[in-house]
Amino acid sequence: MISENLKRIREEKGLSQMQLAKLAGVSQGLIGQVERGSKTLTLPTAKVVSDVLGCTLYDLLGEDTEKTA
Fold first, then answer.
1. Cβ atoms of 60 and 13 closer than 8 Å
2. DSSP string for 22-60
3. Measuring CA to CA, which residue among 57, 46, 51, 60 is closest to residue 6?
4. What's the predicted TM-score (pTM) here?
């Protein structure tokens, strides 16, 4: 789920919501809303966020492979 993946990857990279938002060119509020599951990212924004985080879109948007395997 994107909310869990975004928060986990962001924290693994040692970034705050504000730092990620600034690097991705979005608001901190959007990052928080996505992490809480109340909003989703558009595909272009998800691509920018994944690039900033150094992960793939699948890492960001995909299901946990342990849960689906």
1. no
2. HHHTS-HHHHHHHHHTS----HHHHHHHHHHHT--HHHH
3. 60
4. 0.86
> Tokens 């994944």 label which residue?
50
Determine the residue type at 39. K
* Cα distance from N-terminal residue to C-terminal residue, the chain: 15
pLDDT in tens, 19-68: 999 999 999 999 999 999 999 999 999 999 999 999 999 999 887 555 44
Contact (CB, 8 A) for 20 and 31: yes
Q: Domain of 8: which CATH number?
A: 1.10.260.40
Q: Give residue 13's domain range.
A: 2-68
What single-letter amino acid sits at 62? Answer: G
The letter for the amino acid at 60 is L
